[in-house]
Amino acid sequence: MPNRPNLLFVMSDDHAAHAISAYGSKINTTPNLDRIAENGMRLDAAFCTNSICAPSRAAILTGTFNHVNGVTTLDTSLDNSLWNVAKELQAAGYVTALIGKWHLGHGPGADPSGFDFWRVLPGQGHYHNPVMLEEGGRIVERGGYVTDLITDDCIAFLEQHQADEEGKPFALFCHHKAPHRSWEPAPRHFTKYDDVEIPEPHTFRDDLVGRAEVIQAVRMRMMDLDPIVDLKAAVPDGLSEDEEIAWRYQRYIKDYLRVVDAIDENMGRLLDHLEVTGDSDDTVVMYTSDQGFFLGDHGWFDKRLMYEESLRMPLLIQFPSRIAPGSSSDEIVTNVDFTPTILELLGVERPEHLQGRSFVPLLEGAPPADWPSSMYYRYWMHRDGSHLCPAHYGVRTRTHKLICYYNDPLDQPGAHGPADPVEWELFDLVADPYEVNNVFGHPEHAAVQAELLTELARLQAKVGDEPFDHSGAPPSA
Ligand code: CA
User: Fold this and answer.
1) Does residue 259 belong to any structural domain of this protein?
2) d(CA 130, CA 125)
3) What residues have a C-beta under 5 A from ligand 1, the ion?
4) Residue 412 in this model has a pLDDT that exceeds 60
5) 354 and 397 in a common domain
6) What's the CA-to-centroid distance between 363 and ligand 1, angstroms?
7) By residue range, what is the domain housing residue 445?
8) Verdict on whether the full-model pTM lies above 0.90
9) What is residue 297's predicted lDDT score, i.e. its pLDDT?
């Protein structure tokens, strides 16, 4: 067997790139995550193909789009008889482990598969004193803070692996629960940021005028947060609505950043551990999140939508022998590309059926001439639960974004009455990086609109997805 590198894949849950200082955060610093960027590459245009937890995890593990792997929504388990990257690595001689959040179902047909060891949170899990599950349904009760405990277990796995000295490489998947709602910090961070005012984002007071009606109806505004559950405080008396929105943002963002602080510290523990054991040079270290998040952008929290803050994933990768320190790439990659990339970095042959493309050439600073300049996105959960986000698909290129809110009433039976009208949005990301000017149907953008409609259809066909059957003809350019 060739001498293969190790893999440390760290994925958090809902960590937006704009809350990482390597990405130019204006609201926090993340010195340990930044170490990965300093040692390796920061990917500036890494996008998820469906901005919601379970589907993104399924896309990463299987290297396929959600209509292929079956996990289109939060309510679907991942069929564990399907191929996944861990199984492939195991077959290639890796010792594989998964510790932390799984969120792809439990039981014989859905438990993690392809891992020599796994210990996961049931469902979303708890921040404090969580219960964890192991193979065979064994329950492990833990005392402490979830991000610390997951890291403790990862370090214990690495120590055990080293002690076993079998000469096999490891592939460790460390999946944090944080910083998922409801943003509960570790006690040591309870009062951090108490004495500072976190800046509001540029689009915090976005009135959403000109955007699709279904977007204006989305319930992800500051006023939609539950004060007690999400903000851990009663709203002070006597605030105007504007003041209350500002107060809510401060409560929300500070807890979010406190929870991120524990991720950053624990990333530091893992990097330190690899340095002490001498594994740093032989280990591919990746940090990502299953999707982005709105940090008050457009007045919102949460994700789901194809807008930049939600679409974009942080993606930092270090591997000294192949990736130049302090490098970056603005080429488009997606979560479906992660697995082919991991396999190529580790020298494991990729199966034919994978839908993504390895971006190792980007990591090595040599983008191929035919590297894709667009990506396909689809979110299925039409007006689900309390967020009321519409189902939609779209295309993002290096300069533009086209979104179709197709509003399928069948996607969520009983959620509402007849189909909402189909609505479109088009953004010129160069002139309007904050996506506040919907120019769909504007004559001066007719040419690019026509190109994007064609590109959307091309990508949809290429990945084997099908357009929603619009009852009325969709607007054409
Ligand atoms: Ca998530």
Assistant:
1) yes
2) 6
3) 13-14, 53, 290
4) no
5) no
6) 25
7) 375-463
8) yes
9) 98
